[in-house]
Specification:
The protein is built from no helices and ten strands. The protein is mainly beta. The strands form two sheets. The chain has a six-stranded mixed β-sheet, with no helix packed on it.
Length: 113
């Protein structure tokens, strides 16, 4: 029973920071590539960051590269997304993603002054 629980979102001013967390269960987290997605109403859900099994390699969409950092703690079955220098266009619901087609409830990030 796959479960993904995102948390850490909220309202932040432009230039601010947030750290998102995703607690995973129901699958072999330590052998799974993990990623973060985001979605705004009327737009496609887009992949923004991914991290390899051990955390040695990470990739990012160009729009967040240099500002966001994905990391993981395999002992805690948790993946993180540190978001710095936030922009209004980062406003979205953020989801984590494992190897299957399951989604959590997401966590809302709103960047506004």
């Amino acid at each position: 029973q796959v479960q993904l629980v995102e948390s850490g979102g909220g309202l932040v001013q432009p230039g601010g920071s947030l750290r998102l967390r995703c607690a995973a269960s129901g699958f072999n987290f330590s052998s799974s590539f993990m990623s973060w997605y985001r979605q705004v109403p009327g737009k496609e859900r887009e992949s923004i960051a991914g991290i390899s099994i051990t955390g040695r390699y990470a990739n990012y969409v160009d729009s967040v590269k240099g500002r966001f950092t994905i990391s993981r703690d395999n002992a805690k079955n948790t993946v993180y997304l540190q978001m710095n220098s936030l922009k209004p266009e980062d406003t979205a619901v953020y989801y984590c993603k494992g190897p299957g087609g399951n989604w959590g409830q997401g966590t809302q990030v709103t960047v506004s002054s």
